[in-house]
Batch of 2 targets.
Target 1
Amino acid sequence: MSNLDRQAVPALCGGRGFVVAEPVRELLSPRRVKLGESSEVRRLLPNLGRRMVGAWCFVDHYGPDDIADEPGMQVPPHPHMGLQTVSWLHQGEVLHRDSTGSLQTIRPRELGLMTSGRAISHSEESPKPHARFLHGAQLWVALPDGDRHTDPHFEHHSGLPQITAPGLTATLILGELDGARSPGTTYTPIVGADLSLARGTDVRLPLEPDFEYAVLSMSGEAHVDGVPVLPGSMLYLGCGRTELPLRAESDAGLMLLGGEPFEEELIMFWNWIGRSQEEIEQARQDWMEGSRFGEVKGYDGAPLPAPELPPVSLKPRGRVR
């Protein structure tokens, strides 16, 4: 999945000036965005008041959607640069194709990790046949300047490391947590974990005090540091924490996102991350002319055209507002 908003506007991200250096409880509401003709996602990042959490710069939560009699996810070929995409499912399957030749079905709690590097294109679709329900999250990780021109590649990891405590199973998606490490390639200090809590669970999860964190609610009723977080919303937690209290009123699913605050200032427009307007303009031209981003073979449909650039200059700025 990607940013299919035809009214795309630039998001100006990065820089440490607005990182909250102490623990906070800032509840972020989603913006509802149409994905194609029939699907809708809840966009948590970039948000009006918060653009990044560590290197995490884009978070969409979708479903659970009943797609038994629907085509399901149908995202035509589109380009990326300067970022990694993370595909994470709780229900359903997604078939990934990309311009490096990758072809992979991603299933619940398996990591689909695509590093765009300098340029890649991909498509995502529900297989035929497919499961009745589709529920998951699509996330992006910004690449630092020294790695953003790396060769594009795709990784698929099943059987990810797990951390357990009474009533809690944490599946490590990216980075490190409580001594465990994900096999997914990372380029900045980061963590992403899927948290499954049984009803009545009351635990404390160890954290890295130099990281900033947020928790996305996927399902159920849970309190994060005493704050009720409903499905489709996200609680920003700031920095300076050594542990995180979690309490479940029902069986619940959460995603923990964190990382060292991202120092560089970025421009994010449509599906590209750059450092200047000239980079974004060149990326758009290359995509529309059919160069640089390669070809996705096997998808039954035309690639997505890029939206028009805004009439104002794009300049990288701070992390929030």
Note: The longest helix spans residues 277-289.
Target 2
Amino acid sequence: MATFYKPNAGFKRDLLKPGDIFINTSTFKPAHCGIVVDGLDIIHATGKGIVSTDIDLWGNEAEVFRPAPVLSKDEAGQVTNIAVEIKASATYGITRAGIKSTFSTHNVGGGTRARLEKYRERLKNDQGVVKHVYCSELVILCYQLAWIAGDAVNQGHRLFINLDGKHTWPSTLRRYLKGNNNWAFLGEYAA
């Protein structure tokens, strides 16, 4: 696999862009993910909480995915602002990570739409988007909530990740991104 970015090895940090998705490949595959935000930090949900880590300190090999075509500055701002808001309001959802993602379907259904409408209202009213979240759910929510049209969730937008984040493992997200023409697989971030 081609190395897209290797910290402190002469690769330029500006190859990475806000909105890029990292999916860890160094433990049981793939086990963790996060989203790049302004300042080239990665926001991700861990057992220690929702944290922001400098890109050069990510510490795990990861595959890097980017929307195609590349997000505009406004689109990247929408996605990363949601990540920042989730970080400010949520805690790590161990039950979601261990049970709900394992024993439920990742297909979008009525429950997904209802949750997204609730989160949309919270986002609009600055109430804290979600209370509990795990890594792939955080990434998926950033891309789902960024494409809110008027008073409804816009599932038809090319970058709306059509998965139920509450029930999706990083491996399922990885398969989804690899099989979707609206996403480019850039290569590996090599720790």
Note: The chain has a mean pLDDT of 83.
